[in-house]
Fold each of these.
Amino acid sequence: MVEVLLDREGDASLPLGYRLVESEVEFLHCPGLSQNLMIRGEKLCNWAEVFYRARGISCQEVISVKREIRSVCSHLSDEHIQALMGQLGERLDILRRPLTIQALLQALYPATIWNTPLSVRHAASWLLWLFHEDPAEHVQPLLRRIGELWLSEARHEAREVYKASSRQDAQRLLEDWLGIGDRSAVPMVEEFPHSVPDALQEKARQTWTKRIIESHGAFFEQIEKLNIPFSLKKLAAKETRRYYVKNYGELTIPRLNQLIPYLSESELNQLRQYIAPQEPGQVPEEPVDVLKWFRQRYLPYREWQHQRADIEAKDKVQQSARQFAIWYLDSYPKALAGASLKKWISFNKVNELNCGENCLMLLVVLDGLHATDARYLLQSIRSHTQRLDIVAEDFAFTTLPTITQFAKEALFRGVPPIKVPYVEPVGEILPEDKSPAIKLASGQHRGIFLWRVLEPDRTYHQQNKSENLRQKVEGCLETIALIINEIIETIPDHIFVQIVITTDHGRLLGRAVRTIPVPEKMKGHGRAAWGETSKDYPASGYIIEDQLAYLFAESFGLSEDVVIPLDESAFLGNDDRAGSENYPHGGIFPEEIIVPWIVLTRDYVRPNVEITIKGHGRARRGGTLQIHILNQSDIELTLNEAEISLRNDMKIRLQLEAPIRPYSEITHSVDLEPWPSPAEAKIAKAVARLRQPNQMQFDYPAVIEIESEDIYVEQENILEDLA
């Protein structure tokens, strides 16, 4: 049976097997009623409809493409629609009907952004898409419409950016979010989650260089406080360094210390030639203070001294190093028995690692990573990915002696070296020199994994005499940073990933000359020797003779006695081979003993939550607390506990375990007895602890409004008026 299609708008595609009729003359020349026709044009369609109805032939209206497009977005003008149709071309015919705005935009600009779940990351992607695409004017109404839809659906803090629909809007918001403009003008607390485009990095450099000059370098302090990508802080640090190179008289130690986390060793050395760090001074007594001393005093001075041929500075380093050695020799045996140093020793810190049900923890143990190299590695990691946040950038004390065969297995098993044969590793050991990314990418693995990396120790030994040793070490650290980035990108997103970076031992920041003969019945390697000493040890467990410390195996948790030099010397090599070695290890200098302990967490985002605690009760009796929680994040949380502080020595801890769905609020009631007094209620403070499904916990200060009625308050005298 013949079919007649009516195309009133004149914009429909001609179906296969149909004849197009666009004028009365063409219509009159149609051969009878034996051919399928498409009649085009409003006037001709009206005439043809009457003609065919009289002959009992039905006509079918063709849906107008213009009307279809306008139904998606009513703000489109005829000119907009015509331009969209020209841009889409034949792709219009293959789009699934009915048309949707997402399908239309996907056909115009193929991208994942149109169907990605809404989040802060999606909002940032939207701004970058607008910035890079610079969409044409005829697309703007579509973009405004999709933005309206997203704005109404989104619940995250960055939803206001969906009001942007042009490159100009996006650039303004991006500059504010990145701190190039007014960072306080954007509602996002979270750091911008994507790489910063080159054009915006250049805009930041130009903008900030001017302010660095105007502030005489002080502007960097403002940049460091902003929650912006590491790459931009590094850029600002480099521009600040350039300023101080030309104006070194204005450089101060506090300003230099602010730049340390962002500059390379060579860049720091360039600045340190203009200003000497503080001298190390006395070694403190408490472990936590020793670590602070190492970070703030000893390490900067040691790095500065290492680059200078300054005999006086070297003498001061050696004096401090010897003080530290005596402190550690005194403290280490006591720590093995449970003294305060215990929790700071790296093999004991391994025992504290905790991984929840949906957690994968990777302990990356690099061989011989000293503090300076760890700083460079962390810079490289942060330059390659924004998905890893620093939870802890600490130090720990390693075992004695600082030799791989003693320290590494002790670290893996969480025990002193003497107990290694009797204890299993704390997690699954992954192969050396092989990226664990493929193994961990399946999403089937949970728990603790130990990845031992032979670098940078191998490069230090193989390239020890190379003039480019520093560059080669940095090259291998860069490779490790790339592998870590690969690991966190391949592990499925629903798994909570935490990475701990540490090492078995540090290294001497300097050159050791092999001058010490290896004692009889002992083996030597670098700056340590072990075997039988046949000495009569005192209660301290060690003896110092000249520049050598003899360690009693039993006191130091070893299977053999050990000898360690207290100066920068090393033991003779095989066949009494002399010579020297750059960056050796085995000794007891602070940089050999104090090692990095860096904890990184993937996609670390603090949920947006508001907590209020209210209640009323009678003092010393009972009452009810109402704990109200507003969860403005897109993940489910659990109210783990709440702690109310009434006085310095009095706290009320409430174990709750109350779930809170995403984008919801709950009020949790808790009976409390005894109820605080009015004085206690007035000064009460509260903290609530929330837990994510990945076991990450966050503490939040709560607004607390509790009232207390004291039963001993003097009552009003109702007979007073009768007196």
Amino acid sequence: MKENELNRMKELVSLLNSASRAYYAQDREIMSNFEYDRLYDELTQLEEITGVTMADSPTASVGYEAVEELPKVRHEQPMLSLSKTKSREELRDWLNGREAIMSWKLDGLTVVLHYEGGKLVKAVTRGNGEIGEVVTNNARVFRNIPLSVPFQGELVVRGEAIISYSEFERINSQIEDVEAKYKNPRNLCSGSVRQLNNEVTAARNVNFYAYSLIKAEDADFANSRKAQFDFLSKMGFEVVEHRLVNPDTIMDAIAYFEKKIQTYDVPSDGLVLLYEDIAYGRSLGRTAKFPRDSIAFKWADELRETVLTDMEWSASRTGLINPVAIFEPVELEGTTVSRASVHNISIVRGLKLGIGDHITVYKANMIIPQIAENLTGSDSLKIPETCPVCGLPTEIRQVNDVQSLYCNNPACDAKKIKSFTLFVSRDAMNVEGLSESTLEKFLAAGFLHEFADVFRLSRYEREIADMEGFGAKSCSNLMQSIENARKTTLPRLIYGLGIENIGVANAKVLCRHFRFSLDALRGADMEELSNIDGIGEVIAAGIYEYFRDADRMAQLDHLLSEVDIVRETVDESAQTLAGMSFVITGSLEHYSNRNELKDEIEGKGGRVTGSVTAKTTCLINNDVTSQSSKNKKAKELGVRIISEEEFIAAYLS
């Protein structure tokens, strides 16, 4: 074996694992699907040539590692990946003269549903294929999931949770900040299904499409996969669209799906073929990673060669400057495209881009324009040394494995515009009539310098009425909208401040934790902030630094003098857990989920944090003998570990 082949394999394993970890576990993208597939195929070929497979090779492992915040369970049957092909002829040959079910390969998050006695009792994500995350409470708010079914035996169904393209676009349209917009429906769905608060899941219209019957106790399907699909439909499941095919009809079926995907609202990255004969499929067994009864077909990307003519650099309120490639227009999948996001500096450099380079472009999943390859590779593109908006110096920062470009000027107009846009948005102060373009006019006119100035715009009522696009009526409506917005809640205000990494959900978490006391939040130290469930050290540092900035605090005080914060009342007589701190881990029996128990503890004045510290009153874990990291930490610090029942008896009775 050549040493350079082994070194290349190690390099590919590292690159692919980093990309997979970012995409599946962290909901971000550091390389395109096209590039991932190309590198994966190169690694597979090298493994075949050398006969060596690394222990951590993506060809020998599946899925992402389950995150700490959700309970974990082991699947009864391992969830394997599928071998894949882009060749239609190879797909037909794979049939071996037999019938098979052809269906969409949906691009969302795989979820397994468990029913007992006709009731949904558990929902688990794919996880790493062996161990998944329990998301039962979130699955209950999927838009189309049956919570009860006629079948009374044990029933296990596998399917895909998805968010449609139209829903994805609706959600993104409500996010003014370019940086905060979701990259694709798959990432949005993954984050939605794996929420700790299912209110977020419910608001995002997640749908579930069943595609595999894993278990139906004592049911007979006459050895037919088609019969299983029909059974699932009768049980109330929305089943993935499918067709029964044979070697004579498979090409027509592929053509049907290929035409439909151009307007299909459900994200899909290919097709799946599954033998109709259940016994025959099972008799084929499996490899270490793939079952032999099914195969995936990925669309051969339609590539077009074009010329890179420009690179736009778009600044956001946090200072992140996003690169967007501009190229000579080409026809792709039936539409004309001339722009593609390049996401960050790492991808720009990986593609070795330069103005005038010949590049190939495609649509990821036949929808989202991407650069596939740079045929020239001039690597001559100059990264802006100054911000395109304010003209002051930029900086390249590396976070984890990704390099991105930032503007360091705190007074950059782009930051101001985006910050004010967020501040007046619907989930923040909800000031109707203040679009980004209107705010830009007001900033240019000198009407706005800090957030409090939004509520002082009546000083310029005459000037605003005389502005192009306004008039007396529009101006009057705006002034009334501003007055209506004065009465608000603390979570809305905290979100509107634009603290880094604090979205709507985290704003609510912070306010609940500090019992809706802004003074308590402003005075919190790093340790307390870091221990809030769902916050962590990185987010905590941003919060802490924000409230230690003298200029920001002066402006916050100005804002507070202009608004009326409606504060939730707390029954002091019921605060029996005041001053106590708890950590909850593992699955629960008396509560439907950890949030329910957390709400009860917080309602009685206690705190629930995500990690065990010396200040923790006790760790609540029904598996008191487990060797989990939280149990080990509690034992090291002498923190008591108690079961759910012991907690109820000791603290709630």
Amino acid sequence: MGGVFVHADAFARFLKDRIGAENVIFMSGTDCYGSPIVEKYRSVVADGQFSGTIEQFVESNHLKQKATLERFQIDLSMFCASGLPPAKDIHARVSAEIFEGLYRAGALEKRSNLQFYDAERGTFLNGRQVTGRCPIAGCKSEEAYADECGLGHQYDPRDLIAPVSALSGSKPELRPVANWYYGLEGKQGVLEAYLQEREKRGEIRPFAAKESREFLKKPAVYIKKEDAERLGAVAGELGAFTAEDDGGNANSVKLVFNRLEERERACVVLFGQGIRYRTGKTLVPFRLTGNIEWGVPAPERDGAKGLTFWVWPESLWAPISFTKTYLRSVGRDENDFKKWWCASDARVYQFIGEDNIYFYGLAEIAFFKDLSGEAAGGVAPGSANEYAGLTDPVIVANKHILYFDKKAASSGKIKPPMADDLLKFYTPEQLRAHFLGLGLGVANVPFRPKAFNPAAGGGEGDPVLKESTTLTNVYNRAVRTLLYTLQKYNGGFAPRAPVSAGVLRATEDVVLKYERLMAAFEFHSVMSLLDDYARSINKTLSDNMKVLQEANDVPAILQVLADAAHMIKTAMVLFHPIVPEGADLVRRYLRIDGRVWSWEHIFRPIDFFYAEKEHKFKFLEPRVDFFKKHESQF
């Protein structure tokens, strides 16, 4: 919630205000398939916590997620589920169509790969039923599975260190199984061009570009220097490679190969000689299918039958099938998806966590390029492929939220609080403001809720409330001052004085800065800008009102209030994507209609929205708060 959804929702709401809600589709959904679901289902059934089918288990999770998103004011056009109606059948069809498009593009290869098999239980094991240690150099994941670790690193199952079967606790065997693979390892050139284009347009965060390029390096293995002396005896069997110092590690040597298959052959030799090694990041064949029963069926091709899609690739095109599902749900032709995914004036923004850069920032982009015949080695699929021309998504990747100072994950040792648990101590708008203010586009940031900190002292401030203080104190005070003062001096009627030219210019400057920051996804800077602006409204009121009230200079008082009303209206519109319910409450007290949210009118003086010449604001009762604190904070 804090790392992805709130940011995506604020941006989607901004776009709806900026270009019109009819021009924005905001989608997400539940990944229903995959081995983690199967393993969790097996576990809860075995423990007596659930007695229904796996479909019912998935549906119960989906409905809980949907309810939580609604509590946090996440305004999705539709929240789909890949394995549940109405998206299920459409998603299965889209999956098959994309498979066929990639197949015709010459981008797929059937390979016999090794899969873990539990001889004691007589069954193949899915990815999450095997645990061990990640073989990727420098990886600090606490959980590694058959061919992917908790941090998203992929590797050959043979490289998993100390594998253990979750079913029997024994060491599983590796047996060959035929599957379809996507040739991602040949796409360095097209992906580098994509990264350069995104950098040129300012549409990728620097850390995301850097992490993406980590996978565009040549295949390499890392060997401890103490074992490097033994390389001489087997150097002739390793093939062509260059030896380099491992820049950040004085204790290891890096062996660099030109091709992935050359590195794989070298790994077999090293393993046979008992020489310890770790593999480096590089592009590897991207597995499309598996033999897990709970999955989207894959088309039968070249004698490969009974396969299902691995959850990661089918989740990459799920946004397309979900878009089709949404369009059909509102009575439109699902083929209209091309207006959103293929048109030259369409943009696709995907908000993800840092761990998923490999999948969305590399594999997905390569898929789309091949479907259009653009990727290296691809053959143009032709007009029969309805997915030719998919626009390259803008990947908005966030760094990790640390729970206090540690990385937390549901699959790790340190468990973060669930989103619903946070609502026992904070309002949704307090949390939305805080998550947006964390600066996750720049660095990993600790989340330190006082309510969950047993070491926190009674008089100690709560870091989670830092950003929302702008709302509950500063902006609240400005709106209250405006309305109470007008009730005292002008019968609650809006001042008829025109907004000062200086206030109009200063407000225009804030609006343009806000727009640039939103377009660059710099949400923490947006929060800082709005804090400064809200304080400037209070300053406009406090610097003038006391003296003018003492002098009983009513015309001057009304001029100050006219200026403040325009600033309050503008701040309300800029706060709207961030804290929509509180912003709308301000709108209702100002008694102006929904046109105010449209950026067609962003620079208009507030009296443009008045329904009548003598416009009266709604009467403000004592102690009304537009942005409330949680009851536990009193």
Amino acid sequence: MIKTTYVIGHRNPDTDSIASAIGYAALKQQQGDSTVVAAMAGAPNPQTRYILDRLKIPDPLFLADVHPKVRDSLKRQTVTIHRQASAYEALELFNKYTVRVLPVVDDDYKPCGLLSLLRLSESYLLPSHDKLRQVTTTLQSLVRTLAGHFETGAGNDTPITLNLFIGAMLEESFSSRIAGYNPDELLIMTGNRRTIQQAAIERGVRVLVVTGGHQLDDDLLSQAGAQGVAVILTPHDTATAAWPARISTPVGSLADKEFATIGVDKSLATLRQKLMGANVTAVVVLKGDGTLTGVATRSSLLAPLPYRLILVDHNELGQAVSGAEEVEIVEVIDHHKLGNSHSNSPISFITSPVGSTCTLVARRYRECSIEPDRQIAALLLAGILSDTVILKSPTTTDADHQMAAWLEERSGLVAADFGRDIFAASSSLKNYGSAERVVTADFKLFTHDKYSIGLGQVEVIGFDEFYSMKERLLEALAVLKRRDNLFIAGLMVTDITTETTLFLVEGHTLIAHVMEYPQLEPHLYEFKDVMSRKKQMVPHLLKILARV
């Protein structure tokens, strides 16, 4: 099975996250792997939006979650049967496709029953004594199953129950045998025995089947028409024709009318719950319009997923796209602290304490002796400039400077000018649309012992806009703190011109006594010369949490 590999950054992605995903996917594709697709776990923030639009690079695929869905477990073409088809045709399908259940569908391809091989076998191999002679069928199904044709009468799809008699005896014995039955409920099957044929016609039976390819005499044919007897001619001999007649029952009459269903977009966890129910051997999978798209059994739960992940700019599942813990992760490229869970098999894990994941991606291009095109080079450069704040952040390393210079040459851009354009175009908080979006656009979760903290960060030029929005931003932080049960929820508002961060925080009152930075007013602290969340703010907060 060919799997799709999604290269994806963390939730609430920043420019480095999206740029590294697009850049690394492009590298994989240049290496000949067409199954690799760039993806994102959230909408681009205003800065990333500006960069993608300026460089005319389409958004990566948006994946709200990667929880395995029911559609991922459907690995074979669904075998169905129409409700008017016969049990004979169902047996042919069971044998041909080695399936155990058949969805029964109507003219609109909507399921109206579920037929199992076990149920079909029990119906014919273990009938009650009083039903040994009974044949439930339709005239249309009967003539089709017998490979015959009508000489008189015509077929329809109305189900009827008939008592089958084989005319292989003297006429006197035959007539006495059928005497106690309602003629309208009789199906007589015989060969070229005129006396039996005539007795059946005179009796006015519902159906007369003449076997062996024999013709009915003209006078008897006229009499049958007058009596309203349906005459069917079949090429089969009597012994052969008797069995198909018995299994000419339309499957709509045999199928279970009550059956489990599930939407194709539901989770595999929901499917698992349904399949664990008593007497549930299969679940019918439906599209949004109610039509059938497949059948899931317990073996479906073991089917390998058709996709896997490469994580960039993060390695902790708490920051990953929802459902990542249920999907195979084959590579990680990151520049943050390690917090990943174990993997089931060895994987490529690239990590280094550099300022940007895009630096590591650019390095991979050089190691593979592959030149990025101008667009990708510019995008990777944008990721480095964004995460290092135009190479000013304390997280900036020599490797970031080297890769920025290398990408400068290949993009045709001047890094300093490009960086100023990026921050000038995206520094206004109004670009985010709402206070909630300002807080969550680049919001990450961190844990330390029993504490969980959440930190967002935005870069600005001057703090005037921030002060006008401060109360709304604090309310948004309070909502996040309650929703995610955080010890503190904070927002770093970093002025790239003064290299100062104002830290707005909603949290435990004890942190004010241990913050170690000036408190300008309740909930607001000033951090001079602090620009990096990863290298400066998070270590500081984890240190003071140990003292609370």
